[in-house]
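Closing statement on the FE2/S2 (inorganic) cluster sub-project.
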Amino acid sequence: MDQRGKRAGGVDRRSVVAGAVACCATGRAAWAGPEDALPQKGDRLVLGDGAQAGQAVTLASLAEEGTLVEAVAVDPAGIKRDGSRFSKIILVRVAPGDIAEEIRPHTVEGVVALSGVCTHQGCTISGWNHEDRKLSCFCHHSEFLPAEGGRVAKGPARKRLPVLPLARGEGGALMVAGSFTSKPGPGTA
Ligand code: FES
């Protein structure tokens, strides 16, 4: 049984009611666990979709410039941080020389990790045009520049996509080296 199943199995009705009250009073889920937390330093990254979902994201997963993958962070205990949609991560590989100086320390060999949630109204970022080096959101066509730290290239979004700092782990595995540079999800700054 996974960790989420274990927690759910131990919750009685009274706890649920108490939890719901705490939730509504604080605006946060009272029983939030590691799966609900945003990616953190020391997490490893695994592929989030497709036939290879769950496999480690390595530099080889993004061997060519222009590659994009969706990823999920996994904590040191092996729990996937997929309880919050704001944990969605996308990684793209661009030419290292194109990366803005201020985010270069957060990248590994041209691989940039960003929040996969549009900062306009929260749709999932899914478009990538390597010619223009722009990520796009199909809901209202905002565009973002990963090599420039998620800067908005075209609105209606006004807030850049947060960057997730990366580090190289054993065997070229990509690891989380810190928290998102700003709060993921809709916002204005
Ligand atoms: S939600 Fe992405 S552009 Fe509106």
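Residues 34-176 form a domain with the Rieske Iron-sulfur Protein fold (CATH 2.102.10.10). With this model delivered, the sub-project is considered complete and its resources will be redirected to Aim 3.
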